[in-house]
Design goal:
The longest helix is centred in the first third of the chain and has 27 residues, at 3-29. A hairpin with a 5-residue loop joins strand 4 (175-185) and strand 5 (191-207). The chain has helices spanning 3-29, 34-42, 53-58, 234-245, 270-274, and strands spanning 73-79, 94-100, 154-159, 175-185, 191-207, 227-232, 249-254, 268-269, 284-290, 296-303. The protein is α+β, with helices and mostly antiparallel strands and 313 residues long.
Length: 313
């Protein structure tokens, strides 16, 4: 065979072997070095702004937007709806908005991470929907109970009985009805029991000395409450004071937060529950008795035949 041909064939074979080895290392060996790939990913800067993609993603910025980089934006608190003055601001009343770090929102606006500076406090002024929330809008320190009482209502405290308070399961903010069990004097003498719902849609604004919910992480022991405070209308406050002074038993009936309908009941008495015939009171009747000679000798007041017997002289 021609030596030149053999030389060319040898060179081709060598190139094929070298190419195969190189391809093997590129396809397989590179995958066996995850540390190098991780380091490369940490250094990757897609938009070339000097901030790595990893840092921008951690800051919640768009890696394809050259105007967004760590620290370029911030998440702040705004109001979801109108909050009237002297309202306890709760988490569900505020929303989070992402804005540019400079220019768009006031420098004093409360950040999402600092929401405790706003929630759980009473606002001094009306806050409109979409307003940025700043600390100057709220009273500092522990809120006063008076700011939690709606306009035209009053706060009144009742003794706390765990069994009467739905087995101790009522909480701050719950809405309850108050049912009273009374002893009423009858016109004809004696007493009867009367049970009636006489206060409805009363909100619990304080439980013992607590007027705001405890932080989720607070696991310290809480002494049993000696009373609970309701927000009621003035005429309802009068009813509650009268009922307690008369010795009535008062029971809380827990309402659904979705139900604001006032029930109309006539109350319950023994006659209403068992029927008048069953509980008919005995009464006196006059019976005139005569002698054999036909003269009227007098009368005896005795009970009627359904509840007793006649007793003639």
């Amino acid at each position: 065979m021609n030596p030149r041909v053999l030389l060319i064939v040898g060179i081709v074979l060598v190139l094929l072997v070298v190419g195969s080895v190189a391809a093997y290392f590129k396809l397989f060996r590179s995958e066996s070095n995850p540390q190098a790939e991780a380091e490369a990913a940490l250094k990757k800067d897609t938009d070339g702004d000097g901030h790595t993609d990893v840092a921008e993603q951690a800051a919640g910025t768009d890696i394809n937007d050259p105007k967004r980089f760590p620290g370029s934006h911030k998440k702040v608190l705004i109001s979801k709806s109108i909050i009237p003055p002297n309202t306890l601001i709760k988490d569900e009343m505020v929303d989070v908005k992402e804005v540019a770090a400079r220019g768009e929102a006031p420098d004093a606006v409360v950040l999402e991470a600092d929401r405790a500076k706003i929630t759980g406090h009473i606002n001094q002024v009306e806050i409109k929907a979409g307003d940025y929330l700043v600390e100057q809008m709220v009273y500092t320190g522990r809120p006063q109970l008076s700011y939690l009482i709606p306009k035209y209502k009053r706060a009144i405290a009742l003794r706390y009985d765990p069994l009467s308070a739905v087995n101790g399961l009522v909480n701050l903010g719950d809405v309850v009805d108050i049912i009273g069990n009374f002893y009423v004097n009858r016109r004809m003498g004696g007493t009867t029991q009367y049970t009636k719902i006489f206060v409805q849609n009363a909100r619990i604004v304080a439980l013992g000395g607590e007027i705001t919910p405890r932080p989720p992480g607070d696991t310290s022991a809480v002494p049993p409450p000696t009373g609970f405070t309701l927000s009621v209308y003035p005429h309802e406050a009068e009813r509650l004071i009268w009922a307690e002074a008369s010795g009535a038993r008062l029971v809380c009936a827990l309402r659904s937060p979705l139900n604001d309908v006032l029930a109309r009941t006539s109350g319950t008495t023994d006659e209403g529950l068992f029927g008048k015939g069953f509980l008919r009171e005995p009464h006196n009747i006059e019976v005139y008795l005569a002698t054999r000679s036909g003269f009227r000798t007098g009368f005896d007041p005795v009970t009627d035949g359904s509840l007793g017997t006649l007793n003639p002289r």
